[in-house]
Amino acid sequence: MAEILLLHHALGLTKGIHAFADELRGTGHTVHVPDLFDGHLFTTIEDGMAYVNEIGFEEITERGIRVASEFPHEIVYAGFSLGVVAAQKLAQTREGSRGALLFYSCVPTSMFGSPWPAELPVQIHGMDGDPYFVDEGDIEAARELVTTADHAELFLYPGDQHLFADSSLPSYDADATTLLLQRVLEFLRHLDA
């Protein structure tokens, strides 16, 4: 079973993030879901990002990196949207990483000063019509990462929602989330093989 550090999106640590973590826990995995926003929750991405900009984007990312120091290096890093930046940096640069799960976002590997470790498994999930994922360069970064890693998968789901796997939000897509969870659980099973 895997130990997973799961970093939330720009709306904060929502009930939907907890529910997602509980789905993984229900199959025997250990999942840590730190609150990088000190209890603040938002109803729109714009409001959440305004808070991030007030605190500082780098500071929010560093909070995710600092919290990782409380856990073993042999962990899976997972992030939803905003949380992907810290999760991807940790997976890419922290020795001993077991894998990465990147939801709704991906940044160029060059952002962290080193290539993606070729043997490090990664899954990236996004909707094919999500303007944040498709129009802001994330899909290109994801495709590039997939070409450089030995065990990398990019999954695109039909639709235009960004935070589609958060069951507490109007953007929730139950069918896409069911498929995403199946793929994530299969990814985690392979890590134990």
UniProtKB/TrEMBL annotation:
InterPro entries cross-referenced by the UniProt entry: AB_hydrolase_fold (IPR029058), Dienelactn_hydro (IPR002925), Dienelactone_hydrolase-like (IPR051049)
Coiled coil regions in record: none
Pfam family membership, one: DLH
Domain Dienelactone hydrolase residue range list: 4-190
Keywords, alphabetical: Hydrolase
Superkingdom assignment: Bacteria
GO molecular function: hydrolase activity
Gene3D superfamilies per UniProt: alpha/beta hydrolase (3.40.50.1820)
Protein name: Dienelactone hydrolase
Organism from which the protein derives: Cohnella endophytica
